[in-house]
Amino acid sequence: MAAAQRQLPRPFARLAKLGLVCLLAGGGLARGVVQFDVFMGFAGKARQGEWFPVTFEILNDGPTFDGQVEMRPRFGDNPVYRFDVELATNTRKRFTLAVFAGTNSGWTAKLKNGRKTVARHEELKLDSSYPATSLLGALSGQQAGGPVLPKTRFKNKWENDRYTPRVAHLQLDTFPDDPIALSGLHALYLNSARAITLRTEQAAALSTWVLGGGHLILAVDQPSDVTSTPWLSSLVRGQFGPVQNSAAGQALHRWAEAGGYSAVGSPDAAFAAGQLATAEVRLAKGETLFELDNRPVAAEANRGLGQVSVLGFNPEREPFKSWTNRAWFWARLAKVKKTWFEKTTAPTRYGQMHIDGVYGAMLDSRQVSKLPIGWLLLLLAAYLVIIGPVDRIWLKRINKQMLTWLTFPAYVAIFSLLIYFIGYKLRAGQLELNELHIVDVLPGQQEVLRGRSYVSVYSPLNDDYRLGGSFEQGGIRSEYGGTFRGNMASSLLVQRAPGKLEARARVPIWTSRLLCSEWLAPANGGVTAALTKNGRASYELSIKNGLDKAITGAMLLAEGKVTELELQSPPGGTRTIRVRIGSTPDSDPHIDFESISNTGRFENAVNARNMAFGDTERGRIEPMLMNLVACSFPALLGSTNPAGNLVASFNGSGGLDLSAHAERGGAVLFLLAEDHAPIPSTGLFETKLAQARTLYRIPLEITKPE
């Protein structure tokens, strides 16, 4: 009877067995309902000191939950990135996060449900190269097709591994939909057959990237790929002839040789005898690169602050695919400088400093003063003299040598209080926020503002401060110190949510901390300009000020020269002025920076700013228009070596550098508006000391009067 009592009814027994099975398998089921994949960089590649994409793909076959993705460097005090995502049952989500490559350490990615970690990836690797190293992305029509680049000849294997120009073969499904994430590329090769399959968000990101300073290399597989794709047609603005076979001959070889590469091989007879299926290419405001059979089959043109290069043939097909010198052709097309292939030692001096340091010297609080080295040494000498001979002589004179165990800590306490008092008098002050917005007004059917906002926060105490704004795309990062200093960060947490970008930054007591945000926003009126050429070095410039503040300064880049304009434009006003460029580009092909910056001055300011003690004024630069414009050309700033040549020592991230655009003959109008911001304040906290100024950079197409 007892046995009968212990036996469960059959239905309950079956239910118990099912429950036991579920319990035993529960861990496996929990792990299997969520798939979490992470794709780093541009096919695993990135450049140090630049943004790169991280693509997350999440498949949720389990219950709905509000998840959070976290990206964290494995070493160092570097930014932590978080992204909120809602994961419904039976859904697959893919999204891209722009991450700044301020460290060479590995990364860890986690998917969380509240405090519980649902999935994770440890030791995510990123092949990070030197900032000046060319990184060419490729969306080829064929898996094995597309560009190749020559190898460097550096003696050091480590230098060859890190500095060799690279090609990243990208996949369509992980191509970024955020233009900020694309800014780590020097150029992008795109086969037109791939272009027509891009999603709307991807196409918009690519267009914005080009207009903001990117270089698109487009291979036309079929002219209809371009003409029937609105976004691509609007960007390229080209006319194409019918496809016909052309003798390859020596035109492409001569063009590659003209790049100045000494290692270009001898002409390839097999390639020269081959036939290329080519379409005639003509671009609005463009120029022909080379011709075949007296037909222009390659052209390039400026678009906004960037450039498009269009090939009227598919380089992934024979005979081009097997051409022995094609690597040199690609090197010239992608604008890889010949110095990378001519020397046996990598040009490591380039990019040692980052332009962030110059902006920091402009924006750091003037409430902060440094103790001069002389006073510091004097204070130290006085301390050593007092705790040493003075204390000994005095105690000996009063015959109280045993009191040294009291006098010594007393001296330490007194000098500690004195140092604190000096520090307080030098640095104590109020919470202060200084903002500088560098805004590119990008052309298109709807003008877009691509902005970089530098924010300097001075804190009178150790505290965390919130920054951010309502941005669909963008990122926030710490100040970058260059290849040898990396991220100059204390704690920084970057939080992303749909339509929202925020960060929490720790600022130590009595210090200024510089942070940087990258963002995109609609133009909504703002400033517009048009440039008309009336004659040799003579222009007519029309400016409409749709801002709420007056324009207080203007400079024009045209014909490789920077000209300061006499302009005062009140809100809502339209001004037309005549501009005469002082000299022609034939006399000096480079930008004359003598009028806007002294060679080596920015270097000295950055070095002095990074010192704890010394001359306070040496680490400061006034945020005046000339200095702001000079910072738009980091690659052309530096110091002069003994041979009298300019040695570039700065680099700038995220499309800030307009040096290449200037060398291509592009025109840019710089406008300064004081006490004005194009977006709500990046600082999400209250302070009585706040200042904002904005530098607008407007790319101009030069027109001729009708």
Backbone CA Rg = 30 Å
State the CATH architecture of one domain: 3-Layer(aba) Sandwich
Question: Based on CA inertia axes, which overall geometry fits?
Answer: globular
The proportion of strand residues reads 35-45%
Number of strands: 37
CATH fold label of one domain? Rossmann fold
Order of strands across the main sheet:
23-26-21-20-36-35-29-30
Unreliable stretches: 1-31, 583-590, 642-646
Q: Please, what is the average pLDDT?
A: 84
User: First CA to last CA: what distance?
Assistant: 111 Å
Number of helices: 18
Describe the largest sheet: 8 strands, mixed
Helix content: 10-25%
CATH class type of one domain: Alpha Beta
Helix- and strand-based class?
alpha+beta
Defining key terms:
single chain; 706 residues; alpha+beta; Immunoglobulin-like; Rossmann fold; eight-stranded mixed β-sheet; seven-stranded mixed β-sheet; 18 helices; 37 strands; 24% helix; 36% strand; globular; disordered N terminus
Task: Give the gist of this structure.
This protein has 706 residues and is an alpha+beta fold.
Can you describe this structure?
Among the domains are: 96 residues, Immunoglobulins (Immunoglobulin-like), CATH 2.60.40; 214 residues, Rossmann fold; 55 residues, no CATH class. Helices cover 24% and strands 36% of the residues. It is built from 18 helices and 37 strands. The strands form 9 sheets. The protein has an 8-stranded mixed beta sheet with strand order 23-26-21-20-36-35-29-30. It has a 7-stranded mixed beta sheet with strand order 8-7-4-5-24-25-22, with no helix packed on it. Strands 11-10-12-13-18-17-16 form a 7-stranded mixed beta sheet. The longest helix has 25 residues. The termini are far apart. The N terminus is likely disordered.
